[in-house]
Amino acid sequence: MAALTASNPRVFKLADNVPLERVTKRILNGQSWKAGQWLYTDTSDLLKACPSPADSGTGGIKYIALTDQSDPGDSTTNATVLAIVQDTVFECNELANALALTDIGLQCEINVASNIITIDASSTTNAGVEIVDVGVNYNPAQYTIADTKARCLVKVLPTALEAAQA
């Protein structure tokens, strides 16, 4: 058993080889994030870091940060981000636990702590992602069934992708 180190999601597989589109948007004053963190826009179309949990009720999960961002001190600074498209697969860590093969298909919440996004397989109330595979299944040479902060592959749920700005 290994205790893996959590890192922000990274693109594992593009949806039907559709490239992710670069988009430039203004950043809401007070927002900071790390590269790879998921973002959404508020009702003024300003970028914000996704909260715990991010689902259709909180503005969804819409973009991927390309670079680290510190609070700009205004709402006129731009950031270039990638727009997430349906069926893009991301590699993520589970919040704190191991994952089993039976977790494949589970729709669950994301957790954001210290600008790192993990998935919380123990919480499904405000699901934003679906687990499509677990590390021991797609890379048994590197991962075991007993790993904590286990690696897995997820897709953002359509309801989170299509959520209204919040």
Produce a short descriptive summary:
5% of the residues lie in helices and 33% in strands. It is mainly β. It folds into two domains: 17-83, Head decoration protein D (Virus Head Decoration Protein, Chain: A), CATH 2.40.300; 86-160, no CATH class.
Q: Which structural class should the secondary elements be placed in?
A: mainly beta
Report the helical percentage: under 10%
In the sheet with the most strands, the strands line up as: 1-7-11-10-8-9
Largest sheet: 6 strands, antiparallel
Our Rg estimate from Cα atoms comes to 15 Å
* Count of separate structural domains: 2
The number of helical runs is 2
Distance between the termini: 40 Å
Order of helices and strands: EEEEEEEEEEHEH
Which word captures the global form? globular
- Strand share of the residues? 25-35%
Name the average pLDDT: 95
Explain what you see.
The protein has two helices and eleven strands. By secondary structure, the chain is mainly β. It folds into two domains: 67 residues, Head decoration protein D (Virus Head Decoration Protein, Chain: A); 75 residues, no CATH class. It has a six-stranded antiparallel beta sheet with strand order 1-7-11-10-8-9. Strands 2-6-5-3-4 form a five-stranded antiparallel beta sheet, with no helix packed on it. The mean pLDDT is 95.
